[in-house]
Design goal:
heterodimer; A: 222 residues; mainly alpha; 9 helices; flat; disordered C terminus; B: 624 residues; 2 domains; two-stranded antiparallel ribbon; 73% helix; elongated
């Protein structure tokens, strides 16, 4: 149980960092809209906006890497994978995490650290425009995001080990899922009869799961 | 082991490991790191000075600064917000009523809703499940053929990844180094053409064999107050409302939902009734603006928001069909815009609109050709006649239908058309219009009162996850393909392919067939990011336009996602369908659509003009 708590703790750190930077998307939307207004209507473009937008977008996706990993959201070829038993999945994952994930991300952290350090030392500014904003803090995102992903990856490795022991995948934190939209759309629907609405809402997550396994899952019901 | 052999080993390993189901982004990074380390290994330097570290950090920073990818979170956000803000069931209901005279009206309405939804989002699963609940059961109850009903939902559901603004197109643009805008323009016609082919197929089948889609008697429900309003003023709703606006006393005696009809309610209904007129006027004015005023305009040109709005209102459809003509005729004139748009997009993004606009202004002094004015006024006259006919015939049913359509379909339709038109006509960049679209989606949702704080939060977190997924994959593949090229694997593949002495047609067929097969087990993200870059350098040898090839890939993936027995959408539909519908029936229903997609690809190849006309017309041949 302690291990589960520890896992949840790490998940929570990644999720928190991801969700906090997720709000950058809202800022990005607003900034770009304001800039559109300024540029096309007031004819007063802002020179540093190009860099600022890039920074928001870059920070957003880098910092959400660990969050996405914690939610198992990185795309995987799950055609064969999803039809395996949890233990087999865990074995494969464990080996592949050690073989590919660790060297790749370690390299990213190491290289990113050097890169950011160099930039930080000279207080580098953007050269897109003549008087560009500073970029050293933006470059520092690379090792930070890398470290977060690494930490989450270690948690995933722990998950594999736990799954090998118990034969079941440890739980993940609950979070928004794409398929939730079905429930939201149907909950307020007036043109669909009550019964089919309730049935669909109740089973939508199972349907999602089964469809991903394309009817080949271990406990396929289709 | 020689370097190219290492490259091939790398390619084999990536395929194996993807099949094993490890997160692809990290597989790519890990493989790139290890093979890169070997490729750059230099005994005279310490291992920590290996140049692979420079490569990975450069590629990562490149993805963080990629000007195509920056529009991904914005478009994804727009999609998620729209998905939560739009009222799909109401949309389906009203479109179905609007098309009640057409054969197989329920299937047609399903397809149209799917196309609209496809514009909004690219999620296959959610669309199919939702349409399964909203449309599948009604169709079965109405006695529709199971194959027809299941086919239209599964095929319509996959349209979303093709129809712009789609994330797949942005990712391809980033991978292929093409302009997002040009690719959007080229995917425009094939996307709508494909859904048009589906439509022809459904209606054709229903005409040949009416048994498969029995006509269901649907009456438009007319609310009580409309009946009494008609008695009080006039059978014709427009005339009635106009009279009521002048003499509101009788209206005050009519109750709407238990309360007397206020003057405000009269005006609101009058506005709703005038909506088609307004829409046509704005569209025509937009064309006028784009052809006549825009080329001359300086930066203080009127706000570009009005240009689009074509083809949205059902009544305005006929007019809209002809609206394409004036643009076509304006071709010669609009060369000034094409030149303007030919300026690299980056310039615009870097906040320098004046430069681009000046280029347009100096060339535009010639003005539009005289034919434009003639055709423009003909179109205006025809539109006016159609509108007149529509308003003369506007009875209670038409009025109720119009009100349903304006509240459900219009907001979504207008918003997407504004977004697309603003990008396509080169008025703003893809990033800017994506942001406008996202903001518009929020406004739309708040106006329809369908968005609450919880849903906003959800859309934002989902956007973050999707963006991170796509962009990390991009980082991984950027490193991977860099190392693959350095090892000479790319060259080896090229030599190998060239040694077959294929004709361009053969190469086209082979490459599309490979992508088609890859589409069975893999998602589009992996195909576009990992496998498409291997083909891209070969296109030059065979003299194939990467834009045409890319658009064919997008359409191709439609077919791949519809091929039994691997198509996910079939399983989604099976999940919500009644027990008597078997998976085999759904597969059998999908097959014809797959053939339609392949037919569409053949047409696209035989007649590349369909794909390339719009980008060439809008942005000229050069550049790219």
């Amino acid at each position: 149980m302690n291990a589960q708590k520890f896992l949840n703790g790490i998940d929570r750190i990644s999720t928190w960092a991801g969700k906090a930077s997720a709000w950058l998307i809202l800022t990005l939307t607003i900034v770009v809209c304001v800039e559109v207004f300024k540029r096309y209507i007031l004819n007063a473009p802002t020179s540093f906006i190009f860099d600022v937008n890039n920074m928001m977008y870059g920070t957003l996706f880098m910092m959400c890497g660990a969050y996405t990993l914690a939610q198992n959201g990185h795309v995987r070829g799950d055609f064969l994978y999803s039809s395996m038993r949890p233990r087999t999945q865990a074995w494969l994952d464990l080996v592949l995490y050690l073989a590919f994930f660790i060297p790749g991300i370690l390299g990213l952290i190491y290289a990113g650290y050097d890169y950011a350090l160099d930039s930080w030392r000279i207080r580098e500014h953007s050269n897109v425009t003549a008087d560009g904003p500073p970029v050293y803090q933006f470059k520092a995102i690379i090792p930070i995001a890398g470290a977060l992903v690494m930490m989450q990856g270690l948690a995933e490795i722990m998950r594999c080990v736990m799954c090998l022991k118990t034969g079941q995948w440890p739980d993940r934190l609950k979070d928004a899922e794409e398929i939730d939209v079905v429930e939201q759309q149907l909950a307020t629907s007036v043109y669909v009869d009550q019964e089919s609405r309730e049935r669909a809402i109740a089973s939508v997550h199972e349907i999602d799961e089964a469809a991903r396994q394309r009817g080949m899952g271990a406990d396929a019901k289709l | 082991m020689s370097d190219p052999a290492l490259g091939l080993l790398m390619l084999t390993l990536i395929i194996v490991v993807i099949m094993l189901g490890f997160p692809t982004a990290f597989t790519l990074m890990g493989l790139g790191m290890m093979f890169g380390f070997v490729a750059f290994y230099d005994p005279t330097h310490a291992w920590s000075q290996n140049r692979v570290f420079d490569l990975i950090v450069e590629r990562t920073y490149g993805a963080m600064n990629n000007e195509s990818l920056i529009s991904i979170p914005l478009f994804v956000l727009m999609g998620y917000v729209m998905e939560r803000g739009a009222l799909v069931d109401k949309m389906f209901y009203s479109i179905q009523l609007a098309f009640r005279g057409v054969p197989a009206s329920l299937a047609v309405a399903t397809l149209i809703v799917c196309t609209f939804w496809g514009i909004a989002s690219g999620l296959v699963g959610a669309v199919v499940v939702l349409m399964g609940v909203i449309a599948f059961n009604p169709m079965l109850k109405a006695g529709y053929d199971v194959k027809l009903a299941s086919g239209v939902i599964t095929a319509g559901g996959t349209l979303g990844i093709l129809i712009p603004p789609s994330v797949m197109i942005i990712v391809y643009a980033a991978v292929a180094g093409q302009s997002v805008v040009k690719l959007y323009a080229s995917a425009m016609f094939p996307g709508f053409f494909l859904s048009f082919l589906y439509l022809v197929y459904i209606i054709g089948w229903a005409l040949i064999d009416p048994k498969i889609a029995p006509k269901s008697e649907t009456k438009i429900p007319v609310s009580d107050w409309v009946r009494r309003f008609q008695d009080a003023y006039s059978r014709n709703m427009l005339v009635g409302l106009l009279r009521a606006a002048v003499a509101p006393r009788k209206a005050a005696g009519i109750e709407i939902g238990g309360r007397p009809m206020t003057y405000r309610a009269v005006l609101a209904n009058l506005l709703a009734a005038l909506f088609p007129l307004f829409l046509c006027a704005v569209t025509l004015w937009g064309i006028w603006w784009y052809v006549v005023i825009h080329p001359l305009a300086d930066v203080q040109a009127p706000a570009p928001m009005a240009v689009p709005a074509q083809k949205s209102a059902a009544p305005a459809e006929k007019a809209a069909a002809q609206e394409d003509k004036p643009q076509e005729l304006g071709a010669t004139t609009s060369e000034s815009e094409s030149t303007a748009a030919k300026e690299p997009e980056t310039l615009q993004e870097m906040g320098d609109p004046t430069l681009v606009r000046e280029g347009g202004a100096s060339l535009a002094s010639a003005g539009p050709p005289p034919e434009f004015f003639m055709y423009f006024w003909i179109v205006v006259a025809v539109t006016a006649l159609v509108l007149l006919w529509y308003y003369i015939k506007m009875q209670a049913e038409q009025f109720e239908l119009l009100k349903l359509l304006t509240t459900s379909v219009m907001p979504l339709g207008i918003l997407t058309l504004v977004v697309l038109a603003v990008i396509l006509f080169g008025i703003t960049t893809a990033t800017e219009s994506a942001a406008i679209g996202a903001a518009g989606a929020f406004l739309m949702g708040f106006q329809a009162k369908t968005l609450d704080w919880e849903r906003v939060k959800q859309s934002i977190f989902l956007t973050a996850k999707t963006t991170a997924m796509v962009c990390w994959l991009f980082v991984g593949s950027a490193l991977f393909s860099g190392v693959f090229a350095i090892l000479g694997g790319q060259q080896l593949v090229e030599q190998w392919v060239l040694s077959f002495n294929l004709t361009p047609l053969q190469f086209m067929i082979v490459s599309q067939a490979i992508i088609f097969v890859l589409g069975w087990p893999l998602e589009w993200t992996e195909i576009i990011v990992i496998f498409v870059p291997i083909f891209l350098p070969l296109l030059k040898h065979f003299n194939i336009d990467p834009i045409l090839w890319g658009t064919l890939v997008f359409v191709n993936l439609q077919a791949a996602f519809l091929s039994p027995p691997v198509a996910m959408s079939a399983f989604y539909l099976k999940g919500v369908s009644p027990p008597h519908v078997t998976l085999n029936q759904i597969f059998a229903g999908m097959m014809p659509y797959m053939l339609v997609v392949i037919l569409c690809m053949v047409i696209m190849y035989v007649w590349p003009g369909m794909t390339l006309w719009l980008p060439n017309y809008l942005y000229g041949n050069a550049g790219g």
